[in-house]
Amino acid sequence: MSWPEVVADVRTGVGQLSVTGCSVNSTGTGFLVAPDLVVTAAHVVADAAAISVDFDGTSVGGVILGFNELADLALVRLETEAAGHQFQFQLSEPPIGTEVAALGFPRGESLTLTRGVVSGLDRDVNFGTGVIGNMLQTDTAINPGNSGGPLLDVKGKVAGVVSATRKDSEGMAYAVTAPRVAEAVSEWQQRAVPMAPVDCGRAPAPNSGIFPMKVSSNHDQANNIGQALLLHGQGINRGAYAAAFKQFTPELGASFGGEAKWSEGLGSSYWTDLDVVSVTGAGDALQANVRLQTRQDAGHGVDGQTCSNWRISYTMKWDGSGWRIAGTSLPQGKPQPCN
User: Fold this and answer.
1) Rounded to whole angstroms, how far apart are CA atoms 69 and 47?
2) CA 237 vs CA 44, 106, 232, 251: distances in Å
3) Residue 72 backbone zone (phi > 0: left; psi -120 to 50: alpha; other: beta)
4) Which residues of the chain register pLDDT less than 70?
5) Mind listing the pLDDT tens digit for each residue in 33-43?
6) What residues are paired with 125 via a beta bridge?
7) Spatial contact of 18 and 227, defined as CB atoms under 8 Å apart
8) CA angle centred on 213, ends 210 and 219, rounded to 5°
9) For position 195, what pLDDT does the model report?
């Protein structure tokens, strides 16, 4: 197949991961190997308090089913099945010179394909957590956000799972080989012990704190803005207030008096549903109009509400690496109680 044909055939099975830690948020890439199983890199989901995977504007929560830091591999089980393409692995390592391409979400951008070749095999690499052996080397352009995504051959099969790139060397990126990944996935499927999410404390939401996110807007940046708001809400739900606070611009954060003062006002509130209805504007400043549903104790709700439906207009600004919340307003006034 041609590369456009490969992308058209497999793109529905590639998801963008939004991972909330207690103090930081991150994004990465993963891909389906079964309706409810997503392969990604271990460093993408390490120390996760909450994980959600977005497939074309629909977000699904997940838990870690398998994790191996020294192989930089992880398997995430989705809370509900996804209908996307299910990938198959190559049975052997591709020869040096084989054409490959990485499919993922570099730097929070929309789905992106970058091409290259297999530059080397059986590489031992240490990215700071220990030596990972037998890695595949490629000159394919890899950037933050690509991690955990598939490195594909021209038939659309997985040649490797994107791991990382050398910061001190141009054109040297690495992936875990397909046979090694297939072995790990098989092992985890047979003998799986799900990992509990990291407890950040003060988490008001029950269970995992994951909530559905929908993107109704067709603006080119709507999905990226949805991911930024999703990370903010996940942080609130899991009590990861430091991570949630980092989704604000420095100016807005300062207006709240800092993270500790801002989080004091959250009380028992947590997010239960998010819909990015419309996004307007262009350039580095956009306006996002969303529907948000929250739950809280009566003492923390507007007019004693325990479930509230909000219409919020978020001012979003691009800081060079992601969208940050720069301001909020309530164009339709105070929230209405849920029906």
Assistant:
1) 11
2) 20, 26, 9, 23
3) left
4) 167-169
5) 999 999 999 99
6) 132
7) yes
8) 150
9) 87
